[in-house]
Structure formats: structure tokens, C-alpha cells
Amino acid sequence: MRAPNIIKIENLLIQIFLASAAIVMLYPIFMMVLSAFKTTPEIFISPFSMPKKFNIENFQVIWEKTNVPRYFLNSIIVTASSIALLLITGTMAAYAIARYKFRGALMVSLFFLSGLMLPLRLAIIPLFIQLKYLGLIDSLLGLIFIYTAMSLPATVFILTGFLRSLPKELEDSARMDGASELRIMLDIMVPLISPALVIAGIYSAVPIWNDFFFPLIFIQSAEWKTLAQGFTAFFGEYSINYGVLYAGLSLASLPMIFIFIAQSRRFIAGMTAGALK
Amino acid sequence: MAQINMLGVSKRFGDIEVISDTTLEIKDGEFVVFVGPSGCGKSTLLRLLAGLDEITSGEITLNNQRIDHLAPAQRGLAMVFQSYALYPHMTVYQNMSYALKVAKEQKSVIDEKVKKTASILQLSEYLDRKPKELSGGQRQRVAIGRAIVREPKVFLFDEPLSNLDAKLRVQMRIELTKLHKKLKTTMIYVTHDQVEAMTMADKIVVINNGEVEQVGAPLELYRSPANQFVAGFIGSPAMNFFSGTIKDVSANGIHFDLNNSGASIFLKCSDANVSIGESIQFGVRPEHFILAKKTDQIITGEVYAVERLGGETYIYLSSQTDDDIIVHFSGDREIKVGEKIDVGFSIKDCHLFNSKGWAIR
Amino acid sequence: MERSNYQRAKSFRKLKKQLWLLFLLLPPALILITFIFLPMASALWYSVYDWNGLIRGEFVGLENFRKVLLDPERNWFFFNALKNNVLVFVSLMIIQNGTALVIALFLAREPKGARFYQVVFFIPVILSTVIIGFQWKMFLNPVFGLINKILNAIGLHDWALPWLGLPETALPTMILVNAWAWVGFPAIVFLAAIHRIPRDLIEAARLDGGSEWQIAKDIIWPLMAPAVTIIVVLTFIGSFNWFELPYIMAGLEGSPAYSTDMLGLLFYRTAFGSISAGGTEFGVGSALAAIIFIVIFVFSIIATKILVAREVELN
Fold first, then answer.
1. Interface test with A, best of B13, B52, B150, B163 (most A CBs within 10 A)
2. Which residue range forms the structural domain that includes residue C37?
3. Nearest CB partner across the interface for A145, out of C20, C35, C127
4. CB spacing of C180 vs A17 below 8 angstroms
5. B4-233 classified as CATH 3.40.50.300
6. What value of ipTM does the predicted structure carry?
7. pTM
8. Residue A24 and residue C183: Cα distance in Å, rounded?
């Protein structure tokens, strides 16, 4: 056994390290949000201090003068729909792979997993042609399908791990109780993996919400642009109005941050307790 | 009425035959126990009855109607699992009412049945709790309650007591027996614990390596085991076995020598199918040994361990025969390690097994 | 042969099960095939053709591949970008994942505020690459940016460099930004893996007098193997897919002087840059895409095989 004193010193050093790391993590974000409340000259003059007063002018500019609210809405629609479609189809596939033995089960799971390695961006042109053929160019639905497809492999991977860990006896008991396979899945198995659904949801929602590449290529008309894409253009326009820029950055980041913090307990519980693989 | 018949049932997993050609009859209202060592196939047999696994060949009938093609729920059976398999995210009430809900029974009917069963099992105050808030014994009662609510024709139990502590196990054994007497339903019970089998069963089925070794009432198995496996499995501590060789066979009986002991024993039996020189196994239960005074045969041994429990004593002897002997005396005996004692037994308490392990009567 | 009710019931049940599985697997599979596998297959298919803008020309076999890998005018770009991607991967493994490991080990001791730290470290992961790119670009501005202001404030004037403007510092700077943004992810994955290790093992080692370092090396590290596998593979895929961050912070050309050029950027330039110019680069672009894909695929398979074998051995 090591001396309690050494342990105490170790713990102190660890705290110092973690606290410093936390500051490094948070400070830039903190600065970004703070600066959103300052006027542009103020940002240059006193970048580190608290704003003289909490100026919401920048936010007003964004809200009223730009299309940002519309973009925001589009992003919400795309992200929410993609996640919904993703979790439903992902659960279906994961359930089949995790709870049933059938010929070709291994091939099926490799099929879904291989999607992880396929950088879809490299196939952007055929994808464009394909979407054109399906009439999904310049539509949020096209984005939704693309995002769902992109996130399916990881989602199936995560959910399969969790679903596998449920005891077979639960299934057997439900079968004896007369439940159909659909009922067993919906009444019993899926509710028991809710942390996994949250994890898979957040893991996929973040890159979807943040993506600007696909909207850039597929969305032309202003009414369907998403937030991330809108900002890219927006930065060009407001490139010297730092105040408004920071306000925009903050607006774009905060929703995700809030959702994450709200779900963080489930998220962390799921990651630490669940079957990662 | 719930009579089950298994005819020539076998089960293969790939190349491995886990259950071989089993034929059993279970009468209405019987409490039948499938007992055997781990991996012998008893749980598999139960699952085949339940319909959770498909049989490879043979037939299973309930009241003379074939059921082995039916889904588990259609067979009219209910099962209590070893780990209870309670739905963790549902309350006790929801757990117990689930099957009825699936069957689309009316809410009032469900309510009545659940409440009635809960009171039989003393679970009424726990109806709103979730499984993780209950103790092991309570969870087990919920598992049983879930089965009772379905009013099945047959109850299936898969080692339900193995997750309980010793004291609770004894208690629940009695509760289950009382339950059986009350409900009078056929019950099939799987366990590896021969004590549970002996105390609870109307009929015991001893299974080893996928084959039925013997079927009979508990005491029948105790007194007349059909083969060496059953003899050694039933009864605790296990029967003592000694190797021996046949010296002489006659119409009256058999003469055989116990190896290395010089003891020569004569057993009266007719129609023994053995030959001279054949090696046999001779068995005597620990509780049938007596401190030698006026008995038929004697074996001398040196005590190497003594266990005195107060109400009974276990003596461990190393003897001239190659085998160690365990002796069980009721009451307390002051015997010390290192003592040399003579033990004897009465002929009527002996068992003889031929070279293939089958009992010689 | 007469089919008894009994046999009919059995086959019906079997059919039901197969239909059920089909129902479960078909929708997700369809989505994957339509929107990922088909396009990817087409992309690879296109690479063996000559292209005039978006119009497909004649079959040219491996000509496009030759152009990418062997044509002296082009292949400098290819190998330069490849070198950068490898650099990114190695650096991230050491800096980002190494730090993540340390963080995870510390958090595993459950210090005060562990929950808080877990959430905090993960917040940058949530932010959009766009945001991170822009934000740090502003912070790294040589004159107005936060970083140089701090450096000047504490007297390190010589260090107040134009970080994104110098070929020597641009890539390392971006690597550090990536590490800042993503360290939370492997940290949590590692932490989860450490939590799975049975307490008794670690406590027994502590009682035996092992130092923290020894315990980490001999017990925790081997038992974390599955998590390490996942992170290595994901980091590799991420490094070779680098696009948004360099695009925002340094531009499509990998400025300055192609020091931050990545395979992803090169692909984009080749395939798209040419469409507007009407050149015949699309086939070449597709060949490049095929090569990138093969590199990622081969590495993933090899790495997974090696690492999974190691996992099995250690457990």
C-alpha cells in the first residue's frame, strides 16, 4: 500500500491537470459567447474582459437581417428527421443481427459495418447524379436520406453491441407469455437499451447538424439551406463584423451544447455501462 | 387434465446429440423432477417441452394431442426461469399482467387475477415496485406469480432455487411443495440438486449425458438404483464404491472378492448375468455402515478426517481396499483422526454393479 | 406425401420467422445500398473511363491511376498530400489520443468533479468543424488573435508567429486544433473501457504495492484493447478523411505552399475544379478517390486484424 500522503499529492496534481485542461477546453468557447455580446470595436479593444453591457444587437442583426432563422429551422428538420429515420431503421437492423441466429448473419453485420469505412464524400458525383435521378436535389429529403445512410453503420454497430447484452431469458419469457416478435422487440428489448439510443442519437446528430459539405453541393435555393451551410456564406458577407460573426457562431453551437448537457447523464451512463463492441 | 408424453424425443445441435431418444410419461398432477449433473441436458429437455427449442425428432403430446409444432405460448405451459427473467423496466404488477395483456384480456379480469395471485404469494404490497427494488426471494415469487396468473396446464421450473441462499432455498422448497398441493397442477422441475429432487418430487427422472438413467419415486431410486450412476448421484454424501472381482457364480448367488481386502462376500441373487473373473463395483451408502460388532462383513480402516456436526458425524477412512470410505453416523461420535476402526454393513444395504454399471439384483 | 397439419404448422412458423427478418433488414439495407454502396461503386467504376466534363468518354483502363501515381506533374501533389495525411494520423495518435488516455486514466480514479470534467471535455466534440475552424482562425490571427495577444502579454514576443501563414507551422497548428476539438471523444471511450475492468483486479494490484504507472501499464492498458482498436481505426479513417478543417483554416489549395494539402482537398480540386474548367480530370479524380478508398480499406482491415488478435490474446 502506498502512503496516503503520496495519494493525496497525486490527487492534487490530477486535479490541477484536469482543471487546466478544462480551462483550455472551455475558454475559447466562453470567449466566443462573450464576444457575441460585444460590439466589434469592443472586441478589438478589450478582448478578454466581460462585455460592458450584454448587447444583444448582434443577435438582432442575425435574427432580422439574415436568413438565419430559416436556416435554423431547416437544420432542425433535417437533423430531427434523419435521427428519427436512423434510429428506427438502425434498431431494426441491429435487432435482427443481435438477437437471431440465421445463415449469413455474419455477412449481414459485416455489410453494415463496412459502411463505416466508406468515405461517402469521395462518391459525391455519382451521388449527385443518383439524387438527380430520384428527384431529390435541392430538397431536405435528399439530405435526410444521405445522412441516415451515412450514420447507419455506426448506429447499427452501437445498437448491436447493446442489444446483444440483453439476456436471452427475457426473450424466452416473453415468448412464453405469448408476445409476437414485434411485441418483444417494442415492449421489452428496445426500452431496455434507451441509453444506447441516446448515445447513437447524439453521436450521429452532431455531425449531421454540423455538416456543410452536402448541403453545399445539393441545396441551391436559399429557402432550403441549412445552418452550417448558411454560415459559410454568412462569414464571407460579415467578415469584418466580428461581433455578428461571434453571435452567429454562438447561435450555431448552443443548441447542440444544451441538448448534450441535458442528456449527458444518460449519455455517460450508457457509454460507461454499455457494451462497446 | 394435463398429461404429457414424450416419445422418442431427441435433439441435435449441429453434430452433437444433446438429447437421445427419450421417452417419458408425466401424469396429471404429478410433481416430476428432472435431475442430473450440469450439462446433462435436463434444461434442454425442459426447453423442448416449453417450445423454446425445436426437437430434432420424436413427438411431444399434451393430453394425447401433439404440441411439438406449436409456438410456446400456444402450448398452455408456463415457465419459471433460473434468473427469474423479470422485465426490469416494468413493475411487479405489469410483469405479472403482461401475458394477459398480450392475450387481450379485459382489464378488470386481469386486475382480478393478478391481485388474487399476488395475495397467494404475499406480493400484494409490492405490486408497484420494480424488480430491482426487490430481494431475491421476492423476485422469485414474482416469477412464480407470473406463471400462475396464466393458469397454465403445466408449470415448468428451470432451477428456480439456485440463485437463493441456503436458508431461503429450504424455505422455498416447502413453499413450492405447498403450492403444488394447493394448485394440483402438473409441475416439471429441473435441478442439479438431488436434495431438492428427493424432497419435492413425486417422480424423479435422472438424466446423464442426454439419456434417461432411471425414472421412479424418490425412495425407489434410493433403495434400488438401476445403475451405478444413479446410485452415486442420489444420496449425500455419495455412495461408497469398492472394486471387486467375481470368484464364483452359482444358482443361489455370487461370490466375489473385494480387491485388496481379502474380504470375500456372498450375495444371494438369482439370474445374475455375470461371469467369473468379471470386475464389479460394490456399493454401500455412508449411512449404512455400522461400527463393527455383530455384522456380516467387516472392513478395517484408518481415520484421516472427522467432521462432527453435533447432530451427525462424518468419518473419512482410508482402507485396505484401494478406495476411501465415507461413513455417516447420526448423533455425535468421539472418534479421532488416526484411529483404526472396523466398519461393517448389512447385506440388505448393499448394491452390486456389473462391469457395465448396471445393478445386479 | 400428405402434409399433415403438424408439418404445415412447422413450415408456416419458419416462414414467419424469415419474413420477419426480411422486414427488419430490408429498409436499412435499401437505404445503405441506394445512398452509399451504389454511389461508391459508381465512383470506382468511373475511374476507369476518360471524361470530358461530365460526359463519359472511352474506357481507359488504369490510365487514370497511372496519371495520379506516376505522372510527374501530378504525383508530387499526391504524395505530398499522402504524406500530410499520414503525418496527421501519427500526430493525432500521439497528441490527441495520448492526452485522451491520460485524461481517461485520471478520470478513472474518480476525482472530485469527474462528471463535470467528462461533460466539459466532450463539449468541443459537439461543435461544428466550421465553427471550430473559424473560431480558431480568428484566435490565430497574427495581429488581433487571442493566442498572439496572450503570448505578447506574457512576454513571449518571438513566439507570436503567423501560425497559419508559415509552411512549417500551419499543419502542426491545425493538428493541435483538431486535438483540442476531439480529445473528448477518445477520452470517454477509454474511460468507458477502463470502467469495465473489474475493480478487484486493480485493487489487488494496489494492495500488492504496485505503483499507478505499473498498474496502468500492466493491467489497465491490456484490458482496454477493444477500445484502443476502435479508436485507432476511427482516428485513421478520420485523418484520411480530413477536409473541412483544412478547407476552412487554410483553403482548398492547402496553403501555404501546399503544406496543408490533404488527399480530400486534392480530390475535390481534381474532380470539381476541373468541371468548371471543362478539363478531363474527372476520371483522374475518381481514380484518386479509388486509391484513397483502397488505402483506408486496406489499412482498416489490417489494423483490425492485428488489433483484434491482440485483444483475444490479452483476454
1. B52
2. 5-46
3. C35
4. no
5. yes
6. 0.80
7. 0.80
8. 12
